[in-house]
Amino acid sequence: MYIPAVPQTPQNTAYVKKQAETFLAGTNPPDFAGDRTGVPYVGLGVDADVIQLISRIAMGLSVAVT
After folding, report:
1. Most exposed of 14, 20, 45, 48 (fewest Cβ within 10 Å)?
2. Residue 19 backbone phi and psi in degrees, to 5
3. SS3 for 24?
4. pLDDT truncated to tens, each residue of the chain (66 aa)?
């Protein structure tokens, strides 16, 4: 199991931002192959799949404030 630890450094903040952009676009993350090999998978995760607040924050996704 891979459990990432991401200290909030400028480099990591930039990476998480880019990761969120590519996730929302349905493309490979910045550190994955650039040939779109993961894109055609059936059941690829989408924004609506990330429900938990902590998960959304960790992935750099928007969080609803109530």
Report:
1. 48
2. -60, -45
3. helix
4. 666 676 788 988 898 899 899 889 888 777 776 666 656 677 788 999 999 999 998 889 999 887
